[in-house]
Amino acid sequence: MTITGDAATRGAFVGLWVxxxxxxxxxxxxPILDQNYHLAEENSKLxxxxxxxxxxxxxxxxxxxxxMLRQQEPSTTxxxxxxxxxxxxxxxxxxxTSKIGKEVNLLxxxxxxxxxxGYVKEVDPTYKFHERCLGxxxxxxxxxxxxAQDAALPFPHDAWCKNLGESCPGNVIWxxxxxxxxxxxxxS
Length: 188
Fold this sequence. Notes:
Elements: H1 6-72, E1 102-108, E2 113-122, E3 128-129, E4 132-133, E5 138-146, H2 164-167, E6 170-175, E7 179-186
Antiparallel strand pairs: 1-2, 1-7, 2-5, 3-4, 5-6
């Protein structure tokens, strides 16, 4: 069967019309596709920011808890405002020093989960790493195995490294409250 005359012309016209309307529809969809792409990027940024905020919240909560515990401890000052305790030597071995070299899991995210494995490298609160002191509530940990590449760093080293995948394997500052000791064995 052969299509001739008006039927062939109508078929060609309908084919061009369908093709043209599809191109017009696609052109109208471009701004929507661009908007969806930008929304996906924004959602990704918000997700990372949320993880960082959650980690900061956990650290602040730990700080509040330790402050409350310190307030419940008996005072070591006498009525003259001087200390009754004998000052410790700065070279004295503290329980913290014994934690150097211990294998640990780092906890992060929400809910808290194991995000990396490594070992404690430094515990001295005055120790500086990337121009940041460890402080009383953090350890310097060498991370040799990352389990969650996108886990937010609680203390970013610089403007470029914001998560574990970007900075490890290597050293990170991690809150003590989110460090889980694996065993009594040490690494050198």
